[in-house]
Design a protein that fits this description.
single chain, alpha/beta, TIM Barrel, 8-stranded parallel beta sheet, two-stranded antiparallel ribbon, 12 helices, lyase
Length: 286
């Protein structure tokens, strides 16, 4: 367990102050999928064979001092709902003080996708949309995405996506910050875009796009703090202190692992507080 007197993710007067903006509570359908073979090889984690109680995930948040997790649904063109919006809504209902939901939609049904997003946000309190372009083998500038961007703007919620190479066994091209994220931000300047997984090996491109566009942000999911690229650490210390959000990509990385090395980043108190929670509260209107 963390010690609240020494752990930087914890305020001894108010409790944990870290928010994880990219995580999943895994289902066996999600965990067992063949596209995650490479991640299981890297992490040495076996696939789930039965449902995991939400308390198990919450316990890992507690251990690391994470106050709130944004649980994402997953929907793919061949896979269907690996983690359904209904499942996410049920988990949030079980622990509303610990979780918020991020919706997933079927891009092939654009009208239904917009209605689904609207329902999840307005009726169930979801705080954003996540679409992983490599899952669809479509760049995020494809026409099927654009009605969803407009709806995110209308609803006042962020669009969350993946940048950088693809860890699962799928092509990586759709994760390039330039031209894709750059073009979306030009077409939808009011859209808040949260780019997960740092952008490696195009991290410098990702920082340039975040610098260029006021509503483009980076999240650090899929990397332990000790493995952040040097250019991202420098960005966090200075002009990027309001542009970077903490994430884990749990269950691929546990919250405690993701926070390893955070004290060695050389962030001042203000930058650390913004990185761990302040930026997420602002961007997701938490």
């Amino acid at each position: 367990m963390t010690d609240p007197t020494t752990d930087p993710t914890t305020d001894p007067t108010t409790g944990p102050t870290t928010i994880d903006v990219w995580m999943q509570h895994p289902t066996p359908r999600f965990s067992q999928h063949e596209m995650f073979d490479s991640l299981r090889r890297w992490t040495h984690q076996p696939a789930l064979t039965q449902e995991l109680p939400l308390a198990a995930t919450t316990g890992l948040l507690d251990e690391a001092g994470v106050a709130l997790g944004l649980l994402s649904a997953w929907h793919g063109p061949r896979e269907g709902a690996l983690i359904s919006n209904d499942e996410v809504a049920a988990w949030v209902e079980q622990a509303p003080d610990r979780y918020r939901g991020l919706a997933a939609v079927d891009l092939r049904r654009p009208t239904h996708a917009v209605r689904q997003l609207r329902h999840r946000v307005r009726d169930q309190g979801f705080v954003g949309l996540r679409v992983v372009p490599w899952l669809w083998d479509l760049p995020p500038t494809h026409a099927l995405f654009y009605p969803l961007y407009a709806e995110c703007v209308e609803l006042g919620v962020p669009f969350c996506t993946q940048v950088g190479h693809t860890g699962p066994l799928r092509p990586s091209e759709t994760g390039r910050p330039i031209p894709y994220i750059d073009q979306i931000a030009l077409d939808f300047p009011d859209l808040r875009i949260v780019c997960g997984h740092i952008g490696y090996p195009w991290a410098t491109e990702m920082i340039a796009v975040a610098d260029k566009h006021p509503n483009v942000y980076i999240d650090t999911s899929a990397y332990a703090a000790s493995r952040y690229p040097a250019e991202l650490v420098q960005y966090l210390r200075g002009r990027g202190r309001t542009k970077v959000l903490f994430g884990t990509n749990y269950p691929m990385i546990t919250p405690a692992h993701a926070l390893e090395g955070v004290q060695g980043l050389g962030l001042d108190d203000d930058a650390l507080a913004l990185f761990l929670a302040g930026n997420a509260r602002r961007v997701f209107s938490l």
